[in-house]
Specification:
Number of strands: 9
Order of helices and strands: HEEEEEEHEEEHHHHH
Largest sheet: 7 strands, mixed
Strand order of the largest sheet: 7-8-2-3-6-1-9
Number of helices: 7
Helix content: 40-55%
Distance between the termini: 213 Å
Structural class: alpha+beta
Oligomer: single chain
Length: 323
C-alpha cells in the first residue's frame, strides 16, 4: 500500500510555485505592473507600417512609454480609413516644471492631462520614427515641433489626443508627388536630344580636330623651347659671371679715384682762398693795383692830349695858340 503525500510538502510546493510565478512576472515586466500610466491617442498621417503593439514611445532618446493598441476605423460614407494609435505614457516621465515639483509623482489624471495640454500648446507632437533599417520597426517619437500646425481629430474623447506630424519619408514622398514629373521628364528628354545633336554635329567634330592639332603644336613648341633652355641658361650664367667680375674691378678702382678727387678738390679750395686774399676788399695788393691803374689812366690822358696838340697846324703853333 503506497504512502500518502504529506499535506505540508504539497503546500510548500504550491507556495513556492506561486512565489516563483510572482518573481518571474516582476522580473520580465521590469516593474511595469506597478508603474502608473495614462493613455494617449494619436492619429498619424499616412501609413503606420512597422509600428506594432509594444513599440517604444521615446522623447529625445528616453523611453517614456509604449504602444498599447492600434485600431482601424473605416467610414463607408467617405470611404476613408483612420488608424488611431493608443500608447501608455508613464505618469512620472513627463512633467512641466511650472506645474509640479520634479520629486512629486502623485498627480491626478486631470493634473497630468493639464500639464500635457500645456506641452502640446508649446509645440509637443508625436511622429513615427524608424528604429531599425533591417527590420523596418517603427517607434513613436515625441518632441517639440512648434512650427508645425496642431491638427486634432477628436477620434476618441475618452483619452487625451496628441497632435502628430508626418514622417520624413512621407514628407519626401509628398514633395515628389507635388512635382510635375511628366513635365520634368519631357524637358530632360529634350535636353538629352539637344546634347546629342550638339555632340554629333560637324562643328563639334571640326573643333575637336582643331584642338588635337593645337595640342600637337603646343607639344612641339614646348619641345623646341626645352631644347633652347639649356644653352640659354649657360649664356645667362656666363653673362652674370662677366658682370660680377666687372663689378669687382670697378669696386677696386673707385676708392683710389675718390681719394684723388678729394685731393684735387682740396687744392682747388686752397687756390680759391689765395685768390680771395689777393683780390679781397681789404687786400693791400688790391689797393696797389687800383693805384697803378689810376696812374696808367692819367698817363694815357696826358699822352692823348699831347698827341692832339701835335696834330694842330704849324701856323697855329707859331702864333702861340694854346689848346
Amino acid at each position: 500500500m503506497s504512502k500518502s503525500a504529506s499535506p505540508t510538502v504539497v503546500g510548500g510546493f504550491v507556495i513556492g510555485a506561486i512565489l516563483l510565478t510572482v518573481a518571474a512576472v516582476l522580473l520580465f515586466s521590469s516593474g511595469s505592473l506597478f508603474t502608473k500610466t495614462y493613455t494617449v491617442v494619436a492619429v498619424f498621417p499616412g501609413n503606420v507600417k512597422g509600428l506594432a503593439v509594444g513599440a517604444a514611445v521615446e522623447m529625445r532618446g528616453v523611453r517614456i512609454g509604449s504602444v498599447s493598441d492600434i485600431k482601424i476605423l473605416t467610414d463607408l460614407k467617405t470611404k476613408t480609413v483612420t488608424v488611431p494609435v493608443y500608447f501608455e505614457i508613464e505618469r512620472s516621465s513627463m512633467k512641466d516644471m511650472a506645474f509640479q515639483d520634479l520629486s512629486d509623482d502623485e498627480l491626478s489624471k486631470d493634473e497630468w492631462e493639464q500639464e500635457v495640454e500645456a506641452l502640446v500648446e508649446a509645440g509637443l507632437k508625436a511622429q513615427l520614427s524608424l528604429k531599425s533599417l533591417v527590420t523596418g520597426q517603427m517607434i513613436v517619437d515625441v518632441d517639440f515641433h512648434p512650427d508645425a500646425p496642431i491638427k486634432l481629430t477628436d477620434i476618441d474623447s475618452r483619452y487625451l489626443e496628441m497632435p502628430t506630424i508626418e514622417t520624413i519619408t512621407d514628407r519626401v514622398i509628398n514633395k515628389l508627388r507635388d512635382l510635375p514629373l511628366t513635365e520634368l521628364v519631357s524637358k530632360a528628354i529634350r535636353l538629352l536630344e539637344n546634347i546629342d545633336q550638339v555632340v554629333t554635329s560637324q562643328e563639334v567634330r571640326e573643333t575637336l580636330a582643331n584642338m588635337q592639332q593645337v595640342t600637337e603644336d603646343a607639344h612641339q613648341l614646348l619641345t623646341n623651347v626645352d631644347a633652347q633652355v639649356e644653352p640659354l641658361s649657360s649664356s645667362v650664367k656666363t653673362t652674370m659671371d662677366d658682370i660680377s667680375s666687372l663689378t669687382r674691378t670697378v669696386d677696386g678702382q673707385v676708392k683710389p679715384l675718390s681719394e684723388s678727387a678729394v685731393a684735387a678738390l682740396n687744392e682747388a679750395k686752397n687756390a680759391l682762398s689765395s685768390i680771395d686774399d689777393l683780390v679781397g676788399k681789404d687786400s693791400a695788393t688790391r689797393a696797389d693795383l687800383e693805384n697803378a691803374l689810376q696812374a696808367l689812366s692819367r698817363a694815357a690822358n696826358s699822352r692823348r692830349n699831347l698827341t692832339d696838340y701835335l696834330e694842330q697846324p704849324p701856323e697855329d703853333l707859331l702864333k702861340g695858340k694854346g689848346y
